[in-house]
From TrEMBL, chains A, B:
Keywords: DNA-binding, Phosphoprotein, Transcription, Transcription regulation
Name of the protein described by the UniProt record: DNA-binding response regulator
Coiled-coil region(s): none
Record carries keyword DNA-binding: yes
CDD domains per UniProt: LuxR_C_like, REC_NarL-like
GO MF annotation list: DNA binding
Annotated GO biological process: phosphorelay signal transduction system; regulation of DNA-templated transcription
Residue ranges of the TM segments: none
Name of a matching Pfam family: Response_reg
Length: 228, 228
DNA sequence: CCCGCCCTCAACCGTTCGATTGATTTTCGG
DNA sequence: CCGAAAATCAATCGAACGGTTGAGGGCGGG
């Protein structure tokens, strides 16, 4: 184990700290500036640093920056994607809480982020109070989900969740969205073209559409696939 | 905030002003905060107000707010879209300069914004200095385009520009991406299905693809259309 | 143990799509 | 004024797609 704190679990020396230290990770200077201003507005929170992408954030953490909370965007143009960065950060010894703060709420992103160990998931259109509350909650180790995100997760778990494609179906829908024809998909996945068509029929039924292009649109709208 | 001006409204007393007054329009509180912080950092610029969507911005302008520059996002979830807001603002008497500051640079958006009378087009990943320079330039009435945007526009005008769809073609590609069939598109645009197919053939040729799904993928990748 | 779900494959058939060829009108710029 | 580009429409034909029906193997829960 590492480090200096006894491995008692959650809050080590930060327990007595009034100061919550926040590391801001976003590729947009404007957003970083806004988050820092918001954070600095809170009396018991301070910005511990800024990074423009996941790699820079990891460098800061390696260099000794010890935030309690990492505010991270998911979509970051060039650099490391937020999900990967989250995975690596939560794999560190005594990791900070990772609070995802991003623009869109697509199923794939949310699941991937939670799976990677994110503590919470906020949307950028959240009001300042919500961001503040989320930072405090994350510092206490609690999980925070923006209402739309929570609803989406629940709707997925819930029994009635129609818009739940199987893994194979999602995979095929993704290839369709890349512009591949059925025959190409069949070769790519080592299955027959008939099987591809069967999957597509199921996909159409679940999405309530009747063509591959409409399936792409519906899949994008439902957050099942993501446009690069 | 805006305090009082002479009350005369359109009087050119702002001409001698050192102060550039900026109205910030964005649906994300975080971004508004960041822009305001950036603007307030500049000695000769001040924020004249904030609005969460185009309608709110127009209300502020109606109520007497007289900014020199409007910093406006294009994508605004619920409210009026930025292009429409730009159109209405530039239609006002002695309108302020409208500087678009948005996340993505898709051809359709850029052209629509310029057509609506936007003075400039910046991307949110622009560094603060670029934003500052653009605000100053916009206040002087100059046109400012972020390099990627300028390149895209030039590539469109330039003769060799392969990825330059015509307006009609872009429109049709957008409808294809919404999942519409040729017949539906023809009805939507009040043209024959044959015409739709002709346009599609041209689109495929320009994008180097041979199916509508591949055209969607290529169009998204090239920034010709945008996934909602 | 059986039922249901997922993944796999097959054959048939009607519709849509993509490619080709050819034509008219308008508009814009040399 | 004339040529180029854009937008419109038509007809044809083979290929791809979408809908249907049917079926078999694997896997987990009741």
């Amino acid at each position: 184990m590492s480090g200096r704190t006894g491995g008692t679990g959650s809050t080590p020396d930060a327990s007595r700290a009034e100061h919550i230290r926040v590391l801001i990770v976003d590729d947009h200077p404007v957003v970083r500036r806004g988050l820092r201003a918001m954070v600095d507005d809170l009396p018991d929170v301070e910005a511990a640093g800024e990074a423009a992408d996941g790699a820079a954030a990891l460098r800061l953490l390696d260099a000794g920056t010890r935030p309690d909370v990492v505010l991270m965007d998911l979509q970051m143009g060039d650099g490391m994607h937020g999900v990967e960065a989250t995975r690596r950060i939560t794999a560190l010894p005594s990791p900070p809480a990772v609070l995802i703060l991003t623009t869109y709420s697509t199923d794939a992103d949310i699941l991937a982020a939670v799976e990677a160990g994110a503590t919470g998931y906020l949307l950028k259109d959240a009001p300042p109070e919500e961001v503040a509350a989320a930072v405090h909650a994350a510092a206490r180790g609690e999980t925070v989900l923006a209402p739309p995100v929570a609803a989406r997760l629940l709707g997925r778990v819930r029994a009635g969740g129609r818009p739940a494609l199987t893994q194979r179906e999602t995979e095929i829908l993704g290839l369709v969205a890349e512009g591949l024809a059925n025959k190409q998909i069949s070769r790519r996945l080592f299955i027959s073209e008939a099987t591809v068509k069967t999957h597509l029929v199921h996909i159409y039924g679940k999405l309530g559409v009747d063509s591959r292009t409409a399936a792409i649109a519906a899949g994008l709208a439902a957050g099942l696939i993501r446009a690069v």
